[in-house]
Design a protein that fits this description.
heteropentamer; A mainly alpha; B mainly alpha; C mainly alpha; D mainly alpha; E mainly alpha; B: mainly alpha; two-stranded antiparallel ribbon; 21 helices; 78% helix; C: Four Helix Bundle (Hemerythrin (Met), subunit A); 2 domains; 1% strand; globular
């Protein structure tokens, strides 16, 4: 086998995407669906097959030169290393299950070819990010996922709100891309290369101040894609898309791209303590912000969206605390259980006849198939971080990393992490109780749940629950497999006494249970949603949209209006037309002189003569002067 | 008057006596066509004679030059007369104008222009100028069916008479001041007296300038131009716009070419006149709704540009002026002949409303008209651009940057109104109606003018070489 | 003596001309003009141009002015047909214009160094003039003769009565 | 000059100019048969395209000399020569011209009014554009430069939309005013050179040797710059463009965007910069700031447009702002990016104008408020619209991105702040583009529920453009290769 | 002895009076008369200059000027008659159909 075969991992989804785009509507539906699934599943299988390439220092594959000008020489090159391999496997694996689920979910959709094509394209773009060897290729995928999410969020484009949500997602993430772009330009200017590994290798040579700025730029770039403060407003609206899209984009892949980016540039970022603190701070703030918002949400998917934001915040904290392995660990487990939650939410909505509002659900434990409840619960306990679930371990390792970080500020972040965990547990069980407990409060007729929407949940639920096994901490007798796999890339080695670890784990478990009890106490029986200012404030995501509108969109509109009306219309065109008008007026004035009367013409003659005479007299006087 | 003198005068003699013979014949023989044909042949003969007969003397009776420069313009005006007659044939017949009289007047006018272009003596200048002016009085007004023509006639006549007064007094003052009537000598005497400014000479030249300014319509002596152009039937208008102006410019160029740079006292004034003329002509044309008036104002602008060339007084400037003049004559004539060729019993199409959409009914002539107008505006690849270019080049060489910028401004404005017309021609319009299809002779003139404009636009070298050789 | 006479004639001429141009009746104007022309002819004579003087009387006063009178009579321009010549509203600016021109012209004329020169006595015998006219200036005379010929033609072409129904 | 070999070579360059001219003439002569004129025009443009492709294949290997050079005396008295030369930059632009012109002809296939004149004007336009991109004698260049306005003027004023007369006159006069100033500067330069050396000539190579005082140089440079800035158009000289774009018929719009704007940039590259190196160096910062302003100003203005054609007009202004920024950065990569971006912009925006014309044909409107739901109405069309819009907003992998990123990478090397600010422009571009796509492609269906989708002829037009957009985006190397040598030459202040 | 300057001053005054006549009157015949006066002024200059320079040319010019004036007047008066027949008026300002 040859290293350039690695491209097959990418090209397979791409091929299926293009194929479905071109021929999807002309071929039998089954064919399209199979193509779509094959594209992803094939990539999954290929990843497994090529796993060996990732070991050691990984493998590079170069396809062809993309851009070549002056000192710049960028190839289409892939880098399949130990950081990329698990991510690839996760992306393709989860995506395969989501694709299967989508086949069932989109059974009644006519425009399925576009959907599957975009979905495949999305996977392709995500894989490009994961496997990119240089920044430009990464950027290709980076923008690619942006576009695909745009297309998928706005998939039901006939409702303008959906299209607008897509546009919003694209635009907000593009704001983040600006920072990534600037970082890319700067890195190239500094190092003369765009290769990620080369940049990391030269990172130590860059002056510390610049490193801080660069890291912050990368952080902001990551914030855009990962929906972290301050670029988080798009994620909640993005729930307008079909549920498989939410599962794919907002659980497993796109939102984690930011984390992945920071992990990729960890050697650079970790050089600057300021940047690390900033990353942690952003993560912590987002985590608690999103958790607070989730507590007041009424749309099931929005609850999950905010929870995603919050969990990604944990991942940022992990990076900030120096543990790449911890971040990736949480990334993986989160991908599993969040995908389960989203897909189950899709089923719930299906059962509720398209109802999204959790306050109009209830009693689904009895009403729907029992397995749905168990699957959802599996996801929920992972999210809430009940002990021994995958979520528990991954979150715990992050909290440990925060606790053990030498810088005392991190204790504050650790505290935020703990509080967030409490909130998480609370809103997760709030969701469970509102949806499954009590009586059915909705009005919609349930749709049938196709088989394909049910069984892809099981493997994911199991992976979520058992996710802890991948990186079982040492004090529980685990081998920290993931940490060892990453080796040098894993970041800081967490060194803490087992007592501390036990203490932290116990605290986390207690917190989760407390959250559960609180939710149980509040929502065991149905409670109508609160309508006070605080809940409205939280419901609207701390008025973030209004703030953005106030400080960005309105000024932008005003500037646009100024440019168009104020400058172009009034100033430039106005002065041009004024000039033209003046000329015409001059002309009209001159035509008035042409009266058609001979006397006028003759007096013009005489006046001309007089002027001539006057001129000559003047000349002679001057001439006489000297 | 010796034989060599007569030989040198041969082209003029052919024109004048040919004209007289046709006049006589017209008295007996009322059929117009042969008379017109005879006139055309005479004019062409005159041109041929001027081209082929090498005169044995350089100067005729101390009044006229017989040099290559004079002969060149004799050829040009003879050809112009031939073209004017070809374009006028239908006009003469349809309006039952006396063919003999008309033809002889045109030939006579051509002779006058030719004499003016070659004048080297103030008396000759005066007489030649009066000669064709007189012919034009009659030609303008001779169509008794057209009321506008009568009005144009009286306007031209009275204004012209006043300008004659100025010219005569001016020449008289020059004579009083310099004691000679010979043009080069008078010029040199004026320029020699740089130490003490000669008031009489200056005033004399100023008055001559007024008369010249009237003839070539410099601001503020231009006001007659639009009215007279509008009222004059196009076949005559073509001659009036080209020949009567061209001959005057030609004599000035000839004079300057012989005497070298003069006019120290007048430079500032001429600068002002040129600037004013270019601008006023351009601005006035902006609001026009009548094609012939528009052409009149455009000719005002063009004369301003010509004045820039004259002002340079360098050989480059004079070459440029001559080139410009020839191009202007050809282009302008073409435009007028096109108007003439469209004329029918309703008269000539003049108002813009009559032109709207005409390009689709008469594509060739309207297309050519558009081309000629753009050449007048100075679009590259047409002769008009080369003309403007060489004038600007000469002016910049002489340091008249300000004038050139004003010229640029007026060019831009000119484009505005020329483009409006061309746009109008090809603007789809349902209500447009057909005009006359034109005769072969008219088409021939148009074709010649057009091909000259294109040819000289792409290969102006031909004319440059010629001018370089003939300029004294 | 001749000098004094010259100035008397000059002022007579100007006075007559001034009267001429202020008349409302063209017949009166022409008569005054003829008077002025006579004075001018005498000035020509004093300046040594007997032939020009004679022709001035014969051609100008005798022929051209009579032609004017003839036309006035022929068209029957009774004084009431004549629009009120100079109207007082137009006088103001025109008087200003004319007087400025007059002043400027005279100033310019007197500004010249030659203005102070005297004209020496001069007498040009008619035969000398004739000789010059028909030898050196023969061509000019020819041109003028042609001009007169075409003027006749023109006068004929324009002066013919209009075909019926074409006058307004 | 080295390539001016003594061997007589086939005058390809002259042919490139004469062929369309001949086609135009034939069209006019053949005006009684409209149908045949179409084919004639198509054949002419196809032949021209064939020649350019042949030249591209034969000479597009990155040689740094003149790939082709032709020279003949023309007006010796004024030292004007008929000099044509092809280097890498011209090669690409000539290729673009031939390609877009063929698209324009195909796109005008259904033109009903005065067909022969229409096509002959298109062909004349092509000839003049070729002339502009090939001429090396300044007077020859100026000639083509001016004549180019005329066919465009007629295309707008006769076949344009409602406000065509206003737009046509504005376009013509505005650009004319600029170029007249250039003419004056040109003549002054000619005279100065003539006085210094005694040879009066308009040859670029010789005029470049002129010694100018720095003040003279600056003034002359500004004279040239004015003409080019209006044509490019740089803010604030841009207001003619939205009007002209909006009112022009589709072929005219394609040419305007794809080619006319490029002539201004080409003029800067070929004439203004090499002739006045000192002035250029001191003026570049201003140019860069003007270009930056243009990027943002136009993006803002585009955001408020409801007429989609006008919106794209502003988007063009914004894009050329980036191109000029790359030039102002004076860096090899940025320059190559600029030129690549010119190509990319020509194709992607050209295709968008094609689509707008098709949409207008079918829906009768270009107003954003009256459009919507194109994906339901005509999915193929909507797909392509989306595709080219994405290309235009600089999605990686598509044509514009390749150029933009080169520009930005290069610019950052010399002017990091400019580049950083320009990157922000990317978001703004996305803002108006997405607003446009949202209004046209998505949303509830307005108007008829279905529209006729693309016909084979329309696919024939759009498919090559789509392929090129992908090609330029993913593998621009063949188009960058001819540039390497040429750009180095010009930046070094010389000719091949 | 006559002063050259004075002779020219008389001529100039005559010329300006002629011009004034031209400007003052609106009747075509009077305008023509004004032109005649102007031309007479020119003649006076010619004759005076001829005497000053002791040359024949000035007088020749004066003579020919007279002849030309005659020709011009002939045509002008024919035009006057023609216009009278057409419009029954000789007021110059009545002929203003063309303007602007």
């Amino acid at each position: 086998m040859n290293e350039s075969l690695l491209f097959l991992i990418l090209l397979l989804p791409l091929f299926c995407a293009v194929f479905n785009m071109l021929f999807g509507m002309r071929l039998p539906r089954l064919f399209t669906e199979v193509m779509a699934v094959i594209g992803v599943a094939g990539a999954f299988v290929l990843t497994l097959l090529f796993w060996g390439y990732a070991e050691g220092d990984g493998s590079r594959a170069v396809l062809f030169t993309w851009l070549n000008s002056g000192t710049l020489n960028v190839s289409f090159a892939l880098n399949f290393d130990r950081l990329a391999a698990p991510m690839t496997l996760m992306v393709t694996g989860v995506a395969t299950l989501i694709h299967l689920y989508a086949v069932g979910y989109m059974r009644e959709e006519d425009d399925y070819a576009r959907f599957f094509s975009l979905l495949n394209l999305f996977v392709f773009a995500m894989l490009v990010i994961v496997l990119a060897d240089n920044l430009l290729v990464l950027f290709l995928g980076w923008e690619g996922v942006g576009f695909c999410s745009y297309g998928l969020i706005g998939f039901w484009y006939r409702k303008l709100e959906n299209a607008k949500a897509g546009t919003k997602a694209f635009l907000v993430t593009r704001v983040g891309d600006v920072f990534l772009g600037i970082a890319m330009l700067w890195l190239f200017a500094l190092t003369g290369t765009l290769s990620i590994s080369a940049i990391n290798a030269q990172a130590a040579l860059i002056s510390p101040g610049v490193v801080i700025v660069l890291s912050l730029l990368l952080l902001l770039g990551a914030c855009g894609k990962s929906a972290q403060l301050p670029l988080m407003t798009w994620l909640a609206d993005a729930m307008a898309g079909p549920t498989p899209v939410s599962a794919l984009i907002h659980a497993a892949t796109m939102v984690t791209a930011g984390v992945y980016l920071l992990c990729r540039f960890f050697p650079l970022v970790s050089l600057s303590a300021v940047a690390m603190t900033a990353i942690t701070a952003i993560g912590a703030l987002t985590a608690i912000y999103a958790a607070s918002c989730a507590m007041a949400q009424r749309d099931i998917k929005r609850v999950l969206a905010y929870s995603t934001m919050s969990q990604v915040g944990y991942m940022f904290m992990a990076v900030g605390a120096g543990t790449v392995a911890g971040a990736m660990f949480h990334l993986l487990t989160h991908a599993f259980f969040k995908a389960v939650l989203f897909m189950a939410a899709g089923c719930i909505i299906h059962l509720g006849g398209g109802e999204n509002n959790i306050f109009k659900m209830g009693g689904l434990a009895r009403r729907g198939p029992a397995e749905l409840f168990w699957v959802f619960l599996a996801g929920a306990v992972c999210l809430a971080g009940l002990p021994l679930t995958g979520g528990f371990f991954s979150k715990d390792s992050i909290l440990l990393a925060l606790y053990t970080y030498p810088d005392p500020v991190y204790r504050v972040f650790w505290l935020i992490g703990i509080v967030t965990a409490l909130l998480t547990s609370f809103y997760t069980f709030r969701l469970v109780y509102l949806v499954f407990a009590g009586e059915w409060r909705g009005s919609g007729h349930p749709h049938a749940l196709p088989l394909l929407m049910r069984w892809p949940l099981w493997p994911l639920a199991l992976l979520g629950l058992a996710g802890g096994m991948f990186n079982l901490p040492a004090f529980l007798g685990g081998g920290e497999a993931l940490h060892h796999w990453y080796g040098t890339m894993a970041g800081r080695m967490l060194t803490a006494s087992h007592d501390v670890e036990w203490m932290l784990a116990g605290l986390a478990a207690a917190i989760a249970v407390v959250g559960w009890f609180a939710a149980h106490w509040r929502y065991r029986t149905y409670q109508a949603p609160l309508e006070n200012a605080l809940s409205r404030f939280l419901l609207s995501g701390w008025q973030a949209d209004a703030l953005v509108d106030r400080f960005f969109i309105r000024p932008f509109n005003a500037m646009a209006l100024f440019s168009w009306i104020g400058c172009d219309r009034t100033l430039f065109d106005g002065s041009l037309e004024g000039l033209a008008r003046t000329a015409t007026r001059c002309g009209a004035l001159l035509l008035k002189i042409t009266t058609g009367r001979l006397t006028t013409y003759l007096s013009a003659f005489a006046w001309g003569f007089l002027i001539l005479l006057g001129w000559f007299l003047l000349k002679l006087v001057e001439g006489g002067g000297h | 008057m010796s034989l060599p003198d007569l030989l040198a005068l041969l082209p003029i003699l052919i024109l004048v006596f040919g004209g007289t013979v046709i006049l006589m014949a017209g008295a007996w023989y009322r059929e117009p066509l042969p008379l017109i044909a005879g006139g055309i042949v005479t004019a062409l003969l005159g041109a041929v004679a001027a081209g082929l007969v090498q005169p044995p003397v350089v100067e005729i009776a101390g009044l006229f030059s017989a040099g290559a420069y004079a002969r060149f313009f004799t050829i040009l005006w003879s050809l112009l007369a031939a073209a004017g007659l070809m374009a006028a044939a239908r006009y003469i017949i349809e309006n039952s104008i006396g063919a003999g009289e008309y033809v002889s007047l045109v030939l006579y006018a051509a002779a006058g222009m030719a004499l003016l272009s070659s004048a080297t003596h103030l008396l000759a200048l005066f007489l030649a100028l009066e000669t064709f002016t007189l012919a034009f009085y009659i030609l303008i007004a001779c169509n008794r069916r057209c009321t506008l023509a009568a009005e144009a006639g009286i306007k031209y006549l009275l204004m012209s008479a006043v300008s004659t007064g100025f010219l005569a007094f001016g020449i008289a003052l020059i004579y009083a001041s310099s004691g000679t009537l010979s043009l080069p000598e008078a010029v040199i005497k004026l320029s020699a007296a740089t130490g003490e400014l000669h008031a009489w000479g200056l005033l004399g030249w100023g008055m001559v300038l007024i008369a010249v300014g009237f003839k070539i319509s410099l601001v503020p002596f231009h006001l007659w131009t639009p009215d007279v152009y509008q009222g004059t039937p196009a076949p005559v208008g073509g001659l009036l716009a080209t020949g009567s102006k061209g001959a005057v410019v030609a004599v000035l160029v000839g004079m300057l070419a012989v005497s070298g740079p003069v006019w120290h006292g007048l430079t500032d004034l001429l600068w002002l006149l040129a600037a004013l003329t270019m601008l006023v002509g351009a601005f006035s044309a902006l609001g026009q709704k009548n094609l012939k008036r528009l052409l009149a104002y455009s000719s005002v602008t063009h004369m301003g540009t010509l004045l820039v060339g004259l002002l340079c007084q360098t050989s480059a400037g004079l070459t440029a002026t001559t080139f410009y003049l020839v191009i202007y004559v050809i282009t302008s004539l073409g435009a007028f002949v096109i108007i003439a060729s469209l004329a029918d019993e309703r008269g000539e199409p003049m108002e813009f409303d009559q032109w709207r959409g005409l390009g689709y009914l008469h594509p060739v002539r309207c297309g050519v008209l558009a081309l000629l107008l753009l050449s007048l505006a100075g679009l590259p690849a047409t002769a008009g651009f080369m003309a403007k270019f060489v004038i600007f080049e000469a002016a910049l060489q002489s340091g008249y940057l300000g004038l050139v910028l004003i010229g640029v401004l007026s060019s831009v404005i000119s484009f505005a109104f020329y483009l409006r017309v061309t746009m109008l021609l090809f603007e789809p319009d349902e209500s447009v109606c057909r005009w006359h299809t034109g005769t072969a002779s008219e088409h021939a003139v148009i074709a010649v003018c057009t091909s000259a404009v294109l040819l000289l636009g792409l290969f102006p070298g031909i004319l440059f070489d010629l001018i370089g050789r003939i300029l004294p | 003596m001749a000098t004094v006479l010259f100035y008397i004639l000059g002022f007579t001429m100007l006075a007559a001309t001034l009267l001429c141009i202020t008349r409302r009746n063209p017949v009166h104007a022409v008569i005054y003009l003829v008077a002025g022309l006579f004075a001018l002819a005498l000035m020509f004579y004093l300046l040594g141009a007997p032939l020009v003087a004679a022709w001035q009387v014969i051609v100008y006063a005798g022929a051209i002015m009579v032609l004017f009178l003839f036309i006035i009579m022929m068209l029957g321009l009774a004084p009431q047909d004549v629009p009120e010549g100079p109207s007082w509203q137009r006088w103001g600016p025109l008087a200003l214009l004319s007087s400025s021109i007059m002043i400027c012209t005279l100033l310019l004329i007197f500004k010249d160094p030659m203005a102070g020169q005297q004209i020496d006595d001069f007498y040009l015998a008619p035969q000398v003039l004739g000789e010059a006219l028909f030898s050196r200036y023969a061509l000019a005379v020819e041109i003028v003769s042609f001009q007169l010929l075409f003027a006749t033609i023109g006068a004929y072409m324009l002066g013919r009565p209009l075909p019926k129904g074409e006058d307004q | 000059m080295t390539a001016a070999s003594a061997l007589p070579q086939f005058p390809w360059l002259t042919l490139l100019i004469l062929l369309p001219l001949g086609g135009a003439l034939l069209c006019l002569l053949h005006h009684r048969r409209a149908e045949e004129c179409r084919w004639l025009a198509l054949a002419t443009t196809a032949a021209t395209l064939g020649i350019t492709i042949y030249l591209f294949v034969c000479y597009g290997q990155g040689d740094s000399g003149w790939l082709l050079y032709e020279d003949a005396a023309w007006i010796p008295r004024y030292g004007i020569r008929f000099t044509l030369g092809l280097d890498g930059i011209s090669l690409l632009l000539v290729l673009l011209t031939a390609f877009l012109q063929m698209i324009a002809v195909l796109m005008s296939w259904s033109e009903k009014q005065h067909v022969p004149m229409f096509f002959s004007l298109l062909l004349v336009l092509e000839a003049t554009l070729m002339g502009i991109f090939l001429a090396l004698d300044l007077m020859l260049f100026f000639l083509f430069w001016e004549v180019m306005l005329l066919p465009m003027f007629f295309l707008i004023s006769i076949w344009g939309h409602e406000r065509r007369h206003y737009a046509a006159i504005k376009f013509f006069l505005y650009t004319l005013a600029g170029s007249m100033v250039m003419l004056v500067a040109l003549i002054v330069l000619y005279l100065i050179h003539g006085e210094q050396t005694g040879t009066y000539t308009f040859a670029l190579a010789e005029l470049m040797q002129t010694d100018l005082s720095s003040q003279q140089e600056m003034l002359l440079f500004l004279g040239f710059l004015l003409a080019f800035a209006i044509k490019i158009p740089l803010v604030p000289f841009h207001t003619w463009l939205p009007d002209a774009h909006t009112e022009a018929p589709v072929a005219g719009t394609i040419d305007l965007t794809g080619l006319l704007l490029k002539t201004g940039i080409y003029g800067l590259i070929r004439f203004a910069f090499p002739l006045f190196p000192e002035a250029t160096r001191s003026f570049l910062p201003v140019l860069g700031i003007v270009a930056l302003t243009g990027i943002f100003h136009a993006a803002w203005a585009a955001y408020r447009q409801d007429d989609i054609k006008r919106l794209f007009a502003y988007s063009s202004i914004s894009h050329v702002g980036l191109v000029v920024l790359g030039l102002a950065a004076w860096q090899l990569t940025a320059w190559e990016g600029s030129i690549l971006l010119m190509l990319a912009h020509g194709i992607s925006t050209g295709a968008l104008f094609v689509l707008i014309a098709l949409i207008r044909q079918r829906t009768g409107t270009r107003n954003l408020a009256e459009l919507g739901g194109l994906w339901s109405q005509a999915p193929q069309m909507a797909f392509l619209f989306l595709f080219f819009s994405l290309a235009s907003l600089g999605l990686p992998g598509l044509a514009n991105f390749a150029g933009e990123i080169l520009v930005l990478l290069g610019t950052f090397q010399t002017h990091p702040v400019w580049a950083a600010i320009a990157v922000i422009g990317v978001v703004f571009t996305a803002a108006y583009m997405l607003r446009l796509v949202q209004g046209v492609v998505w949303g509830p269906v307005k108007g008829r529920p279905t529209l006729p989708d693309l016909t084979p002829r329309e696919w024939l037009i759009l498919l090559p453009m789509a392929v090129l957009v992908l090609w330029l985006g993913l593998y621009p190397e063949p188009f960058l290769r001819p540039l390497h040598g040429a750009v180095v030459n010009i930046m070094a202040g010389g000719l091949p | 002895m006559i002063s050259f300057g004075h002779a020219l001053a008389f001529a100039g005054a005559l010329f300006v009076l002629g011009l004034t006549c031209v400007l003052l009157h609106r009747q075509i015949l009077m305008i023509l008369i004004g032109v005649e006066i102007m031309l007479n002024g020119a003649s006076l200059v010619f004759v005076a200059a001829s005497a000053y320079w002791q040359q024949v040319d000035g007088q020749v010019f004066a003579l020919l000027l007279m002849a030309i004036t005659a020709a011009e007047v002939a045509v002008a008066l024919a035009m006057v008659v023609y216009l009278w027949r057409r419009k029954r008026t000789l007021v110059a300002d009545e002929f203003n159909r063309m303007r602007g």
